[in-house]
Design a protein that fits this description.
The chain is mainly alpha-helical and 205 residues long. The chain has eight helices and no strands.
């Protein structure tokens, strides 16, 4: 036969899991939840639980008559009345007490009691599973590159493939001989003659 549960260790673990709870708060949660749990067990199973709890905690099992295994909502409602707290606190406290209590029981008794309880209550006996964090997804690279060789950051038109706009009309780029009218090698006559401003053609005002 396994050793009875250490009540001080159980209260300490419950206090650690209930945020901001003192040892007296945790003990009150334990002594409110255990009798309610016992009320959902047949007399034979109730006696087995009392023996596992030992004289200190077992003495708190002043449970009412067995009326069949009730569900989790009924369990929380009864804990609320016994602990004199709001429903949210009663639910949190009962869940913590049940998890820590069943973790301390012998595996055979734990499995047997879980089968005798209502499924919604038995589901509360295991600690919540913490799934693996979702894998980090790297964002897909943009359709265009971001480098000096292909263009400035954010540009969809890299320099290597960008075409410059067409030259303006009369641009030196578009003229075969842009300075033909003023170069000495290709100009005909003096500049003044071409401008019709030579001494021979200038009119007196």
């Amino acid at each position: 036969m396994s050793e009875p549960i250490d009540d001080r260790a159980l209260v300490s673990r419950v206090a650690a899991r209930i945020g901001g709870a003192s040892a007296s708060d945790a003990r009150r949660a334990v002594t409110a939840t255990l009798p309610v749990l016992a009320e959902s067990l047949a007399p034979r199973d109730r006696d087995a639980l009392r023996a596992a709890l030992g004289p200190s905690l077992g003495g708190s099992l002043h449970a009412g008559p067995y009326a069949g295994a009730f569900d989790a909502d009924e369990l929380f409602a009864r804990v609320t009345k016994r602990e004199h707290v709001t429903g949210g606190f009663a639910r949190e406290h009962a869940e913590v007490v049940l998890v820590e209590l069943f973790a301390a029981l012998a595996p055979e008794l734990r499995s047997h009691l879980a089968r005798e309880l209502h499924p919604s209550v038995a589901a509360l006996l295991a600690p919540p599973a913490h799934g693996e964090p979702p894998p980090h997804e790297h964002p897909a690279p943009p359709a265009f590159a971001h480098s000096l060789a292909t263009g400035r950051q954010g540009s969809a038109n890299p320099l290597a493939t960008a075409a410059p706009p067409g030259a303006q009309s009369h641009s030196v780029v578009r003229e075969d001989n842009p300075h033909a009218d003023s170069k000495m090698s290709s100009a005909s006559g003096l500049t003044q003659e071409r401008l019709e401003e030579s001494l021979a053609t200038t009119r007196r005002s």
